[in-house]
Known about the structure:
The structure is a single chain. The protein has 784 residues and is of the alpha/beta class. The strands form five sheets. The chain has an eight-stranded parallel barrel, surrounded by four helices. Helix 15 links the parallel strand 10 and strand 11. Helix 3 (75-89) packs antiparallel against helix 4 (95-104), helix 3 packs across helix 6 (156-172) and helix 14 (395-410) packs parallel to helix 15 (435-447).
Amino acid sequence: MMEKHATKRKPRSQPDLIALAMHCGDSSGKGLIFRPEPPGDQGRLDMPIVEVNVEVESFELEILFDGLGGGALITDEVQVVLEEAESKYDVVCPSDLKLKLLGSCRPVDETDQFGSIVVCHHLEKMGLVAIRIIDRAQKALLKIEPFSEIRFKFSDKAKIALRLGWEAIAKHGRFPLPPRGSDRLNKLREKPCGMMHFVSASDKDAGYYYTMGIALSPEVQALGDMDFSYGLDGELIVPGQAVAPIPPMLAISTRLFAVSIPTSSNISEDIQAIPYSSFAHPEILDIAPARGYLFRPELRSGENRVKDVQEQIRKQLEQYENFVTRTTLQEREFLPDVGAAIDISNLEYKKVIPFVQSVLKGFDNSDRAITALFLFLDTQKGDAAATEETFIMTPRVEKICKAIDIAKEVGLKYVAICDQHEDVWLPNLLEYITASELTYVADYSDERGVIVCDGRPVDPVYTASTSAQRIQSVYTTLSVDILKMGMWLCLDALAARRVWQELQRNPHIPERMVLMPIGIVEPFSAFVDNRDRSRTPRPILDPFEKIKFMIEEANVLGAPSLLVDTRHKSKWVLLGSVDKDLPPHVREAIGAIPLIGLKTFMECERLARKKGILLGQAGSIEADQIFCIMSEATLDAAIEGKNPATAIWTAETERVLRRADGSTLKGDLQAQRRAAIMPYLSVFNRAYESHAKLNGWLEYLQTNEELRGSLLEKRELLETLQNKYLDIGSKLGETPADDSPEVLKAYKKAWEEFRAVFCDYHAQIKKHFKPVRDQVSEVWATLK
Length: 784
């Protein structure tokens, strides 16, 4: 008999944040250091060095001992963590602490039927110790001057506690803090806070750089509170795929340094709309629209064809009556009132009317009122001629129009169409015809009193249950406050409502986090507006009309928020010169097309504000646009005694430093979106954004134009000084060893000049932010 060898237990993987904290103070030079140097500096500049000492509290150690005594981590798990700390990080656990940790370990009480639940609670409490330690480190930044090199020093006891806390989080597989969702947003907006800003900051395990930048912002330092109007957009940008849900460990590590900041994660739009036939189903085709599959009756040939079809329709109508009996009107709202169908797809045109009339002889008016003609569209040469915006009569439209004429002739109200090729990205009738064709068909059918409907409707229950699985995964693992979920690009208006209603049946999900429906605003693919059930659905292509539609629908759904975005971000940008009231977006020079201007942007803001909806606007908004729109929105909302309804979502602002000529932003967009986060920009941009809010409030109050003008002048000066040291820096060598002494000296001098003005600018914003905000709050109180 072979001897069995026990597999040696390994410590669980940890993110860079934990590894760097463990390295603090050792000889590797890999400690947790925040050095917001400009791009290409490579350590040349002499930044002020600030050390942050981080210790563990005695009560936190007691939590660890208590958790180990409750069976959260077994002796082997604690032992391998302590061994890894010594071998990998040169962290030797003090002997008294080691003895107490190992001595505290107890097995789970097997006699307690709820023992596993007790262990889960202990794991969460131990995980919270790690979060408290990281949170203390972050809060120390609230008193540090910007553009300093910050070096964290965790004591050996703090490192051991942090590492054991992470081990508990990783073992439990979920973040210990629950989402706060709407509660967080409502509390945030009890006072003036200005426009919210979410940055995609989770890539490459470095989202904590972004949160450090927030802690160093003038507004956060002025208020002494991290729970402010910034958020992390938890989507991972990877090669070959624009966006994907962020991997759990990566997200949890980012959350460790974002415990007080609203966060968001992504559910891809294609997951939201799953047509019936994209999952296994019986071969027998069922006409009942609520169950669907391929919404097509079987057409037999032979002498008894009319009789066979009549028999089939009776079965369909009986199934439909049963369906109506077991469902509510609300549950059927997304479907046309069709209970049976007559397939005319393969009949010669001249034979269709006599055949249909023969079939209908056996049915009364009430049966005919819910019977449709069914038309299956084969692909024909010439069908590709019509585009989304340009209509050309195609063979498939001719065929649809003939079916409409027949329906009118025989007195039927509905024509159901579909084809063989499913496209999960396209909703309703747009799966079969383009937006321009649908507009023509809608006009044609409406004139004749006929409604064209989808012959292959989606199953909202299945779609919602599949979405709920992904939502539940994000909810339990990542603990996000806002969860984006694709909606109207894949679903028509009424089907989206039904999916939303199904999702609300999972009460703890919408209760604990904000579900944020998302729709694509580029005029590349249309929404389907089928809200008026008395006419054929119509497409919506115009970007503003799409946003208006989404705000109206979010209001109907009771959704507290929504996100509008572009999908093909190298082709479309949200804001630019389209309305001649904004300077051209920098990417317009390389062919990008802007969707809306400033006036339209503000109209969207007012519509959302009126409905009380958080409106996320995304789509390659660049750093140079942010100041203008944040200031304008803050001012416009303040006039009504409110905070802006709009939040901006950006992905590139922390990754690419914009030069005055815009040259740095004209490269490959996806490469730039995948670039590493720049600590420099996470500090620099936050100061500009704090200034933008302050500028909007000062313009609203009209009491201190001198301060407003002074800050605007300093902002312009900073742009000049930044370009000056960047220009000199471009003449430096490939490495510091290759530098010309004269160029290096000039570079350092230019930087010091920039840094001195920036620190003065930062201090001035910080000094006035809270007093001005409080003034605004007082004025709002009088308005109310």
